[in-house]
Amino acid sequence: xxxxxxxxxxxxxxxxxxxxxxxxxxxxxxxxxxxxxxxxxxxxxxxxxxxxxxxxxxxxxxxxxxxxxxxxxxxxxxxxxxxxxxxxxxxxxxxxxxxxxxxxxxxxxxxxxxxxxxxxxxxxxxxxxxxxxxxxxxxxxxxxxxxxxxxxxxxxxxxxxxxxxxxxxxxxxxxxxxxxxxxxxxxxxxxxxxxxxxxxxxxxxxxxxxxxxxxxxxxxxxxxxxxxxxxxxxxxxxxxxxxxxxxxxxxxxxxxxxxxxxxxxxxxxxxxxxxxxxxxxxxxxxxxxxxxxxxxxxxxxxxxxxxxxxxxxxxxxxxxxxxxxxxxxxxxxxxxxxxxxxxxxxxxxxxxxxxxxxxxxxxxxxxxxxxxxxxxxxxxxxxxxxxxxxxxxxxxxxxxxxxxxxxxxxxxxxxxxxxxxxxxxxxxxxxxxxxxxxxxxxxxxxxxxxxxxxxxxxxxxxxxxx
Length: 466
Ligand code: F0G
Known about the structure:
Elements: E1 3-7, E2 13-14, E3 29-33, H1 35-41, H2 44-49, H3 66-69, E4 87-88, H4 122-126, H5 133-137, E5 142-146, H6 156-169, E6 174-178, H7 182-194, E7 197-203, H8 209-217, E8 221-225, H9 229-243, E9 246-247, H10 253-259, H11 261-269, E10 277-281, H12 286-300, E11 309-315, H13 320-326, H14 352-362, E12 365-369, H15 371-383, H16 390-404, E13 414-418, H17 426-433, H18 455-462
Parallel strand pairs: 5-13, 6-7, 6-9, 7-8, 10-11, 10-13, 11-12
Antiparallel strand pairs: 1-2, 1-3, 4-5
The chain binds ligand F0G.
């Protein structure tokens, strides 16, 4: 094989056939490719020629880049296929906002006590509601890559196709993960596809309903741990070690190889033109790590001429990486996490050292955003007709904040990664528009209106706004 496992802390080498997630020294492991021999094999043309191929492996937006992922026999691959997600260029044009950016006519569907409530949107006084998403965010050259368009609705499928393929190659019969929801949904689906048993550990009451329903529906044994994600993470590691189950959290280096393809595919969609910034949400830091490794390898292989800067965005209530960043990464921080963006409600991220390395490679930075900023940004992405889950909107809110702080220039090319689908977390979305989220005042609520079944009632509700 042309790759091995290498410890990022002490450099020790291991065979990829070995089941291990950490070095004997405790360090995290990388899949290390032979870049010298890859330099002879890969080119932009090679990958471009595979575009449009209808058969596996190249129909997959992961395995299209298989030399840079895992150079496996294609018969071994477990794929839906995944990837091939859209890259949106949101309009800068002026547009009409959703109906209720002004006064909400009421009555609401929720009950009598809500009737006649007034909603003050910034659209009323500032006209912001009519701005296109990129104007609102403050950059003209804005791209959104929607990883929520993967088979199970999140970017996790890109890592899972590789992780589950590796599990099969290793002869494992059961796979497990701890999850804030999306990893468990993805693992459950890919395990079902591969005929493996799946066990998922989720923090009880802290994962969005769309995700929980997926894990149950795809047939995973779902353990609701009384504790937070970090507790579930410790428990799954112990369980996998003791019971011989294959661990498929992003501590597993094969997962990250698949997630690198987000960067490969985005660059290919951009005609291999490197953006100035790539902005993404950060929780357990697997994706930040994968992005850094992808960019490092592309640069080493001469497929890109310069590095974009990575901006990892955390929720203010779940910001250990941001805190470490403020201290120049002198110290690894952990927090007790709390945010409406449950996907990134993580206080002690497992991939911390790899993510620090990613930021060093890319002259990157970390930002934090409040739940209010997350949900208002989500409303803007949703109202643009694109839609995403709260954690994804953290990246959008972070990009806006960095533009306002003049860290990102208004003329720079900015790629924001939307990591999960709008339908993952209906409770957060509906709660926002009904103004039912504790501690938040929605700036862009779009309240539903209950009406009598008459044309007059319809006309009254439309307020002559057709
Ligand atoms: N966005 C979404 C929608 C996620 O589900 C996650 C992580 C992230 C961003 C953060 O990515 O962990 O690589 O830094 N979800 C994991 C899960 C933790 O269990 O589904 P990260």
